Amino acid sequence: MQFYCPVKLYEGENAVRAHTAELAALGTKALIVTGRRSAKACGAYGDVAAALDAAGVGHALFDAVEENPSVETVMAGRDLGVAEGADFVIGIGGGSPLDACKAIALMIRHADQDAAYLYDGAAPSDALPVVCVPTTCGTGSEVTAISVLTRHDLKVKGSIPHRIFARLALLDGRYLAAAPRHILANTGVDAFGHMAESVVNTQADDYSRMFAFAGLRLWQKSKAVFAGERAATTADYRNMINASAMGGMAIAHTGTTLPHGLSYALTYHLGMAHGAAIGYFEARYLDAAPADQRAAVLEASGFASTAELQAFYDAVCDSRMVTRGTLTRAVDELMQSDKKLALAPFDASRDVVERIAGLR
């Protein structure tokens, strides 16, 4: 077994303000990486900017990160960071800004390199210091070394080979209060997928299961909020953001498996939200899993069966755009990934993968 999680994480109300000194100690000028709206709307950007101002640390804003960030966006962020003289990077938002900020930190450090460096697995992975402030409850990117980017040249989405952990993660459940219900639902399904896939995984061990099952038990407490059956409370927001981080800690050790591998075609070709895309496959993935692992995941998350899990997914996520052609393409692409297939603790033959995809 092994355990490695080098991110210093603080969770609590006003986490940014409470840890201003540690945030400011990372450099003299920050590049703040966000999406176009949500980081400002939820108050996280204002909190970070105020903390840096109070500490006398300069900052520049790159707020152009799209959902499923592209290589081109990363390079644009890199160029701004270099021009501004940034010496650390702060990502605020969901998985897209957090994944992008890691890649941007890498490329600012290697400012003399072009975009090909992002995919050079033999090149050094040293990056500027990174801080992550999540504002959704699904990514877990604040505690993983993964950066998932879109390559328009190849029409694919996937992880870069460089492993880049944040130095600091600041979690405050209050930021979730500004998120629309469909964002909470999609990102909540993403968190469930992280935890389920880290259990049904050849790399699972006692450490990864510790995070996954603790996270699923927290996640279960707010399942009715994701389903729109009741309003969220402060405790729900805290449970959601902590479950997301625990899911991230779990997959940081195991990696994700077949549902994530299948999801990329849906997000790229259909524009489907990431959580909805992975969730499309989760119930059938559990159907294929060893019985003891399936039962443990269902029990911890409060589902009586995979049919009940599927009904929950159908109620909270929109999958009407999914086509048989896209699913076939997803299977074709996944069957070329021996690394992803090897993480499934069962025979991931094409017939089995087609059943998980809903083609059989």
UniProtKB/TrEMBL annotation:
<feature type="domain" description="Alcohol dehydrogenase iron-type/glycerol dehydrogenase GldA">
    <location>
        <begin position="6"/>
        <end position="172"/>
    </location>
</feature>
<dbReference type="Pfam" id="PF00465">
    <property type="entry name" value="Fe-ADH"/>
</dbReference>
<comment type="similarity">
    <text>Belongs to the iron-containing alcohol dehydrogenase family.</text>
</comment>
<dbReference type="GO" id="GO:0046872">
    <property type="term" value="F:metal ion binding"/>
</dbReference>
<dbReference type="InterPro" id="IPR001670">
    <property type="entry name" value="ADH_Fe/GldA"/>
</dbReference>
<dbReference type="Pfam" id="PF25137">
    <property type="entry name" value="ADH_Fe_C"/>
</dbReference>
<dbReference type="InterPro" id="IPR039697">
    <property type="entry name" value="Alcohol_dehydrogenase_Fe"/>
</dbReference>
<feature type="domain" description="Fe-containing alcohol dehydrogenase-like C-terminal">
    <location>
        <begin position="185"/>
        <end position="280"/>
    </location>
</feature>
<dbReference type="InterPro" id="IPR056798">
    <property type="entry name" value="ADH_Fe_C"/>
</dbReference>
<keyword id="KW-0520">NAD</keyword>
<keyword id="KW-0560">Oxidoreductase</keyword>
<dbReference type="InterPro" id="IPR018211">
    <property type="entry name" value="ADH_Fe_CS"/>
</dbReference>
<dbReference type="GO" id="GO:0004022">
    <property type="term" value="F:alcohol dehydrogenase (NAD+) activity"/>
</dbReference>
<protein>
    <submittedName>
        <fullName>Alcohol dehydrogenase, iron-dependent</fullName>
        <ecNumber>1.1.1.1</ecNumber>
    </submittedName>
</protein>
